[in-house]
């Protein structure tokens, strides 16, 4: 019979269609420009002094060392959660539960830093490693369900996020609460276990270098190793990968566990570098924002770094704008929604043109 | 109007796909109260003709008339409105829903306020079942039904609106003889009730038993429209295969077989519904030999290749690649043992659509330490890709182009560049030249012959008989999951092989 039929697109492929390689930089820039334009319009409509508000929003992160450092400290966490989402996407999985893995890793790091004896740097490194391990453990059940039973990870990772947030709340309340504090938080961790700060007096810290290092390692892994090539092929087209002898199940499992480990590590960096104790519900959705950052960065590790800085500056700028005008911080969430819409819709349009 | 106007008239239907004319000025008449068989080889244009009837494709020329009135069919819904129902070869049923729910899926009977009218749906299914003696329980879950019963659900679905013409696409392919008998009873019931039935089939004996008239297509043209009473199976086979029309085929030399390299013994494969697709198959391919598997599509060839390549797990049996048992193991096991696989579904399994040509080729050579270890050296990777691109004549601007951008011929050459450059001991290829132009076809065939002459064992599966006849040193014919004939030594005629492919004895 005449064979004019294209291979049927599976839901997973449709879902990941936005992530197919493309001359992505231009599309990301267009999306960012359109998103900022929309923000400008919203600011113009709400603000009494639109120019001052927009100035604070766009340039708030670059006015002094403190703002710049604060921006970098946020970008650090976003970069690591962004890399977490990116490696998941590359392997063909949508880890939407970075937030939960971040909480699990964060509390783990805080507990290790509080209770482990020994020299500060050793405790610090152990805390970060433990955070990554627990992050990987937190995604293990959704990952195994996906790989061996085909249960969609979008639902299970999201559900496990709420479990993580509530379990950490319980653990802090029951075992680790700071008796000195009225808030639900652990005692402050010893200063010698902190990630060393930079750009004082801001919260920027060595976690930044860790994020850059991780991005470099991931770039090298994806472009230059055999395993990286296999992982990319599994993510793009598992049926092909399997046929050329790649164990797509184990590769996908590895990619998902790495994604969980990175999100857990981001939680550890947030505790040791930023907050210096575990506070109940401390994360302003760093884990979820990692998905946005990964998409803006087009899943390229260095693109993720750039997107993290951009997004960090928008978050810092929005805080600064909130203090000088009547435009609320929530503008960032509108912008986030717009960016995701714009970037993923470009993927859809390309599919339509196929 | 001496005789009654035909129920369906298709006049001068023409459909082109680019340079290919799939259907070329074909006429088809179906009268009320007859079973009309539509015959032809794969690619003869049957499916395209039916797709035009159902509005899945728009003909470039021609006219469709229902009871004498010209109609425009711009989609399956329009077809249903004109009283045309279709039973597809591959069932489209939701296993967890009941029979009645499946029948009305997408055109549910509704009550006020958008509530489902389950009672009306059940009643309609029961009534149809009763009227035509189809015998299905409206409340049974589809997943609990046998294949034959699932097909009856498909038939009822096709009839659920007021249908006057029913088209069945190879309905007996999945049925047991008893179920086939029962289907024919049902079809006779339809005809008696004044419906028209179009039956697409490859089984000539069945056609001769059930059909009243027959239309034969070959290469997109109608070559015959006869009353079944006036022809016999032999004549039909001639019409389908076109014995009187020797095809232009290139003559390739013969090989000199050596030791066995691919050995398949007692292979059984079932599909997910438990239908046995391969029933105890044995075959051996020797070094320096091309064995061709001829057969009409859907007789187990695809499953055979998938079992050898490790994509499909066989129910029982042994598969040895260069002496290594690989049955039931992952694709990697067969590849390590020395298998190259050129799959039928090129864009799903043969290449990574959204990866550059480099990745597509190099993934077959990751064991090569000279590419750099532990880190791949980009210059060496690129050089390997460029060397193979040149050797396999892949026409591409540079190795970084996505496979998606390649034409069919270049894409297939890229697949060969990955698979054959590994100097495999066994090559299994399925429809390797489908959709390729003449030059690319010859290139692919030359590669297979050269590797045969180098000492590789080649298993070539194709539904294109001329391809098999021109390349194979030995020919096996598959029919309903079994090898029903073997031709070694002198090359058989297309007609001799074609008879076996159609299920007739030699």
TrEMBL record, chain A:
Pfam family membership, one: BPD_transp_2
Membrane association type: Multi-pass membrane protein
Keyword annotations from UniProtKB, A to Z: Cell membrane, Membrane, Transmembrane, Transmembrane helix
Keyword Transmembrane recorded: yes
Transmembrane spans: 29-47, 67-88, 100-116, 122-140, 147-165, 204-223, 252-274, 286-315, 327-348
Compartment annotation: Cell membrane
Entry annotated with the keyword 4Fe-4S: no
Origin superkingdom: Bacteria
Entry-linked InterPro entries: ABC_transp_permease
Protein name: ABC transporter permease
Organism: Microtetraspora fusca
């Amino acid at each position: 019979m005449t064979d004019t039929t294209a291979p049927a697109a599976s839901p997973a492929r449709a879902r990941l269609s936005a992530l197919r390689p493309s001359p992505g930089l231009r599309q990301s820039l267009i999306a960012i420009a359109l998103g900022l334009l929309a923000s400008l319009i919203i600011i113009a409509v709400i603000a009494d002094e639109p120019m001052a508000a927009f100035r604070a929003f766009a340039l708030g992160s670059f006015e002094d060392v403190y703002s710049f450092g604060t921006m970098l400290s946020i970008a650090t966490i976003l970069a690591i959660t962004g890399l977490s989402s990116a490696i998941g996407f590359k392997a063909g999985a949508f880890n939407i539960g970075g937030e939960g893995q971040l909480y699990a890793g964060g509390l783990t790091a805080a507990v290790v830093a509080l209770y482990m004896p020994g020299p500060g740097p050793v405790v610090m490194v152990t805390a970060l490693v433990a955070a990554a391990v627990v992050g990987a453990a937190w995604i293990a059940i959704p990952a195994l369900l996906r790989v061996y039973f085909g249960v969609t990870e979008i639902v299970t990772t999201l559900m496990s996020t709420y479990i993580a947030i509530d379990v950490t709340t319980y653990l802090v309340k029951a075992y680790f609460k700071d008796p000195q504090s009225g808030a639900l938080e652990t005692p402050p961790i010893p200063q010698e276990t902190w990630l060393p700060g930079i750009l004082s007096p801001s919260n920027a810290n060595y976690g930044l270098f860790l994020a850059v290092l991780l991005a470099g390692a991931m770039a090298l892994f994806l472009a230059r190793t055999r395993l990286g090539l296999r992982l990319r092929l599994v993510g793009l087209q598992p049926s092909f990968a399997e046929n050329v002898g790649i164990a797509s199940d184990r590769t996908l499992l590895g990619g998902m566990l790495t994604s969980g480990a990175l999100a857990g590590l981001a939680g550890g960096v947030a505790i040791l570098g930023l907050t210096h104790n575990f506070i109940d519900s401390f994360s302003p959705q760093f884990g979820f924002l990692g998905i946005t950052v990964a998409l803006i960065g087009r899943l390229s590790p260095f693109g993720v770094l750039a997107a993290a800085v951009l997004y960090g500056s928008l978050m810092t700028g929005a805080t600064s704008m909130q203090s000088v005008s009547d435009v609320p911080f929530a503008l960032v969430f509108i912008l986030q929604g717009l960016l995701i819409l714009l970037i993923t819709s470009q993927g859809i349009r390309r599919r339509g043109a196929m | 109007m001496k005789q009654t106007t035909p129920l369906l008239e298709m006049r001068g239907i023409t459909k082109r796909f680019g340079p290919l004319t799939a259907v070329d000025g074909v006429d088809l008449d179906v009268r009320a109260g007859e079973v009309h068989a539509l015959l032809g080889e794969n690619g003869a244009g049957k499916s395209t003709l039916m797709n035009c009837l159902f509005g899945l494709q728009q003909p470039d020329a021609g006219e469709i008339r229902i009871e004498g009135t010209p109609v425009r069919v711009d989609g399956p819904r329009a077809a249903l409105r004109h009283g045309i129902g279709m039973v597809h070869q591959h069932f489209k049923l939701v296993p967890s829903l009941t029979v009645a729910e499946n029948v009305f899926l997408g055109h549910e009977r509704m009550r006020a306020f958008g509530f489902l009218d389950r009672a009306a749906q059940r009643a309609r299914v029961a009534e149809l079942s009763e009227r035509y003696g189809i015998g299905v329980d409206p409340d049974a879950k589809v997943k609990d039904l046998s294949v034959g019963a699932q097909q009856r659900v498909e038939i009822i679905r096709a009839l659920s609106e007021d249908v006057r013409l029913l088209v069945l696409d190879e309905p007996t392919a999945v049925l047991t003889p008893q179920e086939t008998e029962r289907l024919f009873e049902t079809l006779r019931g339809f005809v008696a009730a004044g419906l028209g039935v179009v039956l697409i089939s490859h089984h000539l004996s069945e056609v001769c038993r059930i059909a009243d008239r027959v239309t034969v297509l070959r290469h997109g043209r109608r070559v015959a429209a006869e009353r079944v009473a006036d022809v016999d199976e032999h004549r039909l086979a001639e019409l389908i295969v076109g014995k009187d029309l020797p095809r232009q085929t290139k003559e390739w030399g013969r090989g000199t077989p050596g030791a066995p390299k691919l050995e398949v013994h007692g292979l059984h494969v079932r599909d997910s519904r438990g239908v046995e697709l391969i029933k105890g198959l044995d075959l051996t391919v020797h070094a320096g030999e091309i064995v061709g598997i001829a057969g009409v599509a859907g007789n187990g060839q695809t499953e055979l290749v998938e079992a050898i390549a490790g994509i499909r797990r066989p129910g029982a049996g042994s598969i040895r690649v260069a002496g290594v048992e690989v049955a039931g193991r992952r694709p990697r096991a067969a590849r390590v043992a020395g298998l190259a696989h050129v799959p039928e579904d090129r864009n799903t399994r043969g290449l990574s659509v959204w990866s550059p040509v480099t990745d597509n080729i190099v993934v077959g050579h990751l064991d090569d330490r000279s590419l750099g270890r532990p880190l791949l050296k980009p210059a060496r990777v690129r050089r390997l890709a460029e060397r193979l691109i040149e050797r396999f004549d892949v026409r591409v601007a540079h190795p970084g182009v996505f496979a998606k951008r390649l034409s069919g011929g270049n894409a297939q050459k890229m697949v060969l560049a990955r698979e054959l450059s590994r100097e495999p001991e066994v090559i299994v290829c399925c429809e390797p030249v489908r959709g390729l132009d003449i030059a690319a076809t010859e290139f692919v065939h030359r590669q297979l012959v050269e590797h045969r002459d180098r000492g590789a064992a080649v298993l070539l599966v194709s539904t294109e008989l001329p391809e098999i006849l021109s390349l194979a040193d030995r020919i096996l014919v598959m029919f309903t999951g079994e090898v029903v004939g073997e031709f070694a030594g002198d090359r058989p005629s297309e007609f001799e092989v074609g008879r076996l492919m159609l299920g007739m004895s030699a």
